[in-house]
Design goal:
Layout lengths: L3 E6 L24 H12 L6 E4 L9 H11 L6 E3 L21 H4 L13 E6 L2 E5 L3 E3 L5 E3 L3 H12 L5 E5 L25 H10 L4 E4 L6 E5 L2 E5 L9 E9 L5 E9 L9 H11 L2 H9 L7 H7 L6 H7 L11 H8 L17 E4 L1
Parallel strand pairs: 1-2, 2-3, 5-8, 8-9, 9-11
Antiparallel strand pairs: 1-12, 4-5, 6-7, 10-11, 12-13, 13-14
Helix pairs in contact: 4-5
Length: 366
């Protein structure tokens, strides 16, 4: 196996060509910057001698044909290989409508970016000698045609076959939905569970059995590194949401056979129409935070009365922006003790109670 390589992750691009952009009063996505922000990132990445680039889903605003076409044409011009998987926004409908492509069309747009067999929605490829990438599709539809985050049985069986045949390789897994919780009680929280893979325990059981330690996800729009029983779920924030991050990662194996992964995070600081993108985007998110916060405070487990929730929302204006930024620490001393303790759980605190700032820049011993 190759002892050292470098790759990058850019997630949740939500590419929106100008004529496709739509607005909604509570969206946190600043899709207006999707293309210039991506161009800014590519300008940096093309200088780094990368081995490959990963894009873990939500490549487009809402699966528009023009946005998929623009992206695949842009990726084809890059000097390094790129691998993608679909996010919920890329295949929002089973059958094509006036806005979005059909579910089965996605792989045909990205035949050069993992889907060499476009009749399948998942793939595996050797990206480097001894290094295997598995791209999974976490988008399914139930009997009512509603989109859900789940791996079907056929895909799980295929995955086990691939893993069983890859025992001597370093395996990297890319999937849109989270497989390890990044937020307190994420899999059971009414607002957060849709970002989790419904059958994450089944996937994790397979990964642990075959010694797979690295999973790269998106969807949640936050910078976070989560760990559960030998598996790291490294999720990367959205390029169109504060803080507009992307990651550069370097794997190396030392002379003692130990494997390390260094993670460095970067931010898009400005684009032509937003010279101070970080400040403008943080304000954008804060200005639109009230509906989100009211729902968050009045739902379980807090179940606050509406009037009490209204009292707390001004203080919490930047709560989600701080989570999205990664490595957040929360202390609201004037909140009632129960509520104060609840918000502290959202901080970057290890089980031992000490701050653990690994979400943006860290080196992991695998």
């Amino acid at each position: 196996m190759i002892s050292k390589f470098r790759f990058a992750i850019v997630s949740d691009l939500h590419i929106a060509c100008p004529h496709t952009i739509w607005d909604h009063p509570s969206r946190f996505h600043l899709v207006e910057v999707s293309i210039p922000a991506f161009e800014s990132v590519l300008e940096h990445l093309t200088q780094l001698n990368l081995d490959f680039l990963l894009l873990p889903g939500d490549l487009t605003q809402h699966g528009e044909p023009d946005n998929h076409a623009w992206l695949q044409e842009r990726l084809a011009k890059l000097p390094f290989p790129v691998y993608v998987v679909p996010g919920n926004h890329d295949v929002p409908v089973l059958h094509a409508d006036r806005q979005s492509i059909a579910f089965v069309d996605f792989p045909y747009y990205y035949r050069k970016f993992g889907y060499s067999e476009p009749e399948k929605f998942y793939y595996t490829t050797q990206v480097l000698p001894g290094v295997r990438l598995i791209g999974l599709n976490s988008n399914s539809f139930n009997d009512r045609g509603e989109q859900i985050g789940r791996l079907d049985l056929e895909q799980l069986r295929w995955l086990e076959e691939v893993l069983a045949a890859s025992k001597d390789e370093l395996v990297l897994v890319m999937i849109h939905h989270n497989v390890v919780e990044h937020l307190p009680n994420q899999s059971r929280h009414a607002m957060a569970n849709r970002y989790m893979l419904e059958n994450a325990p089944e996937l994790l059981q397979l990964l642990r059995h075959y010694g797979v330690k690295l999973v790269f996800t998106g969807h949640l729009h936050v910078q976070d590194v989560a760990y559960s029983q030998e598996v790291y779920d490294i999720t990367t924030g959205s390029l169109v949401s504060y803080p507009h991050p992307y990651r550069v990662l370097e794997f190396r194996q030392d002379n003692h056979g130990r494997q390390w992964l260094q993670i460095l995070s970067h931010r898009v600081e400005s684009v032509p129409d937003f010279p101070d993108l970080q400040q403008a985007s943080r304000k954008w998110m804060g200005d639109r935070s009230t509906p989100f916060l009211m729902k968050f405070l009045t739902l379980p487990p807090l179940n606050l009365p509406v009037e009490q929730a209204k009292e707390f929302t001004p203080t919490l204006r930047d709560f989600w922006a701080n989570i999205a930024n990664g490595d957040a620490l929360f202390d609201y001393p004037h909140f009632p003790p129960k509520i104060r303790r609840y918000f502290e759980k959202y901080g970057a605190i290890a089980t031992c109670g000490a701050p653990t700032l690994i979400d943006n820049n860290s080196t992991l011993l695998l």
